[in-house]
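I am sending you the entry underneath: sequence plus fold tokens. Let me know what the token row says about the fold:
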Amino acid sequence: MLNVTELRAGTTFKDSQGIWEVVSYKHTKMGRGAANIRVKVNNLKSGATIEKTFTSGQKVEELKLSKKKGQFLYVDEESIVFMDPISFEQFSLPKAAAGGGEKYLKEEGIYEILVAEEQVLNVEIPKLVTLAVAETGPSVKGDTVSGASKDATLENGLMVKVPLFINTGDKVKVDTRNNEYIERVKK
């Protein structure tokens, strides 16, 4: 058991409502009353983020997560399907658990899968991914205006704002947390 005052960002725990990962922690003490602990938590099964409040002294069941490698195969309407690269066993997780991050997974790419109590919970989406530009407007020599951008469609169908000098076929790094262009990848 884990005291609620020990809940910090990244800690995982289990209660009657699900399996949670702490996003943020706030401890408040008012006058003579007991202290309140407010934590913003992410449900590792559904991807939902909520706020929970505990009183000082409460305990929650600590949960240890393990990671295993999974090769991405495909996405269907409800789930994301992976294969264990060693045993070739296929397993899936609900699409909602990835929180929209499934669009950054590349076929046959190897990813870290979060597992708790033999149950697949989530996939770790890398913070930066390299994708090819499938379609964008033409670049004109001399288009070097600082801060100017144009729309580009990437190989996975995402639309991203890129600088004017990016051409179709170029590879670019994209931040998966906010879907923004970072830099062009040198060949």
In short: The radius of gyration is 21 Å. The chain has a mean pLDDT of 83. The longest strand covers residues 18-28.
